[in-house]
UniProtKB/TrEMBL annotation:
It holds the Pfam family Carb_anhydrase. Residues 1-22 form the signal peptide. GO terms for molecular function: carbonate dehydratase activity; zinc ion binding. SUPFAM superfamilies: Carbonic anhydrase. SMART domains: Carb_anhydrase. One of its GO terms (cellular component) is plasma membrane. Residues 67-388 form the Alpha-carbonic anhydrase domain. Gene3D superfamilies: Alpha carbonic anhydrase. It comes from Patella caerulea. This is Alpha-carbonic anhydrase domain-containing protein. Belongs to the alpha-carbonic anhydrase family.
Length: 397
């Protein structure tokens, strides 16, 4: 990409200046480096129309190409800046929108009884764990694992992935959703798209197109889920982040520059620095999927397969908080039917340590350095229902 070349030349230029002159770098040089990058990028990002949510219309932002964003509130691409990130989907993550997630779930409502059981028809699935630098993510091999009983529709939902959120080490907040102000120790999202859509991207522009089951984990309450344990067992295998096409390539160079020059950001959102700048569709990168991984997850030989019963991923007590919200990372599409388990599932301290050791896509960082929790969003008058789903006598059937 010409863009990367220009950036590299800028860095090399500065390094040469330094060597040639023996000049003690001042921030003016560093600023110049940043300006060089900024100037090269198209300056029209901020001109896009905001979605008309202020007029009561729902904003539906289609997910698609992955973009570079961070969970660092001090960064120009942190959560406070996400609304600027995705070209041409500006404003999708605008916190003034009224269907955003995660939320602090109010707990004073009565429990209603859902008519149908929430369950998968399949009891045995196979998949793999990967680290995309945002979170560890389990993906089933089969693309027809259907969840039945999601409220508000008679349609089933197809499982896309199971991924994990957790906070910065030592912080009190470790889950995206909180329940009555209460924090737990980690949170899993089981992401599905409605079966009448081809994929999450297509489903993301329709209300209820996506269903996410959130499972909160606690080291002190609930019982362990064998299915989650099977996933957790593989965490060590994906500790390293190895992605040849890191969308944060540019950001990593900036981090490098900032570290050399000891620069701090001024809090401005750097919408323009996101490397998903308007690439014509024909030039969009093709996602290369590694078919064979070595044990340490490099592309080459085989990678451990994970077998699990998807019904074991669901909450044992079958009580969920249900509300309409959004994806919790860009594009923040407001298409999500949320089902947040009311009671936690048990997690061991060792597993929390294994999660904390997983690398992020920012060079040299762990995901747990900043965590991967979006700030809580306003409930904005939404109703949160508490639903008790019918249970079978035995959990795992
Ligand atoms: C999603 O499905 C649509 C329709 O089949 C297709 O055009 C699109 O490429 C798919 N997107 C992804 C990300 O797979
Ligand atoms: Zn998530």
């Amino acid at each position: 990409m010409a863009f990367k070349v220009v950036l590299m030349l800028g860095v090399v230029f500065l390094a040469q200046q330094s060597l040639a002159t023996g000049f003690d770098f001042t921030t003016s040089y560093a600023r110049k480096a940043l300006t060089l990058v900024e100037d090269y990028l198209p300056g029209h990002y901020n001109d896009f129309n905001p979605h008309p949510t202020s007029h009561g219309e729902r904003a539906f932002c289609q997910t698609g190409e992955e973009s570079c964003f961070s969970y660092d509130p001090d960064s120009g691409i942190g959560p406070q800046c996400w609304f600027k990130i995705d070209y041409p989907r500006n404003k999708c993550c605008d916190e003034r929108n009224s269907f955003q997630s995660p939320i602090d779930i109010p707990v004073n409502q009565r429990t209603r009884h859902a008519r149908n059981r929430l369950r998968y028809r399949r009891n045995h699935i196979k998949g793999e764990l990967e680290n995309n630098g945002i979170y560890p993510k389990f993906e089933p091999e089969d693309d027809n694992i259907r969840l039945y009983g999601v409220p508000g529709t008679h349609r089933s939902y197809i499982m896309d992935n199971v991924h994990f959120h957790f906070g910065p080490r030592g912080d009190e907040r470790q889950t995206e959703h909180t329940i009555g102000g209460h924090n737990f120790d980690a949170e899993a999202h089981i992401v599905h798209h409605r079966s009448d859509f081809a994929n999450v991207s297509e489903a993301s522009v329709h209300k209820g197109g996506i269903a996410v089951v959130a499972i909160l984990f606690s080291t002190e309450h609930g019982s362990k889920s064998p299915a989650f344990e099977n996933i957790f067992r593989e965490l060590g295998e994906v500790e390293d982040f190895e992605d040849e096409e890191n969308v944060c390539f540019l950001e990593n160079i900036l981090i490098f520059i900032k570290r050399i020059f000891n620069l701090e950001e001024d809090g401005r959102c750097r919408s323009a620095l996101i490397p998903t700048f308007p690439a014509p569709p024909s030039q969009q990168k093709v996602h290369r999927k590694c078919l064979l991984h070595t044990k340490d997850s490099r592309c080459g030989e085989h990678k451990d397969e994970i077998y699990l019963n998807p019904n074991e991923l669901l909450s044992e007590c079958a009580v969920y908080y249900n509300y309409d919200g959004s994806l919790t990372s860009p594009t923040c599409s407001e298409a999500v039917t949320w089902l947040v388990a009311a009671e936690p599932t048990r997690i061991s301290k060792e597993t929390l340590k294994a999660l904390a050791a997983v690398e992020s896509r920012f060079t040299g960082d762990k995901i747990s350095d900043k965590g991967n929790l979006r700030p809580l969003q306003s409930l904005a008058g939404r109703e949160v229902k508490k639903l008790r789903f019918p249970k079978r006598k035995h959990r795992y059937h």
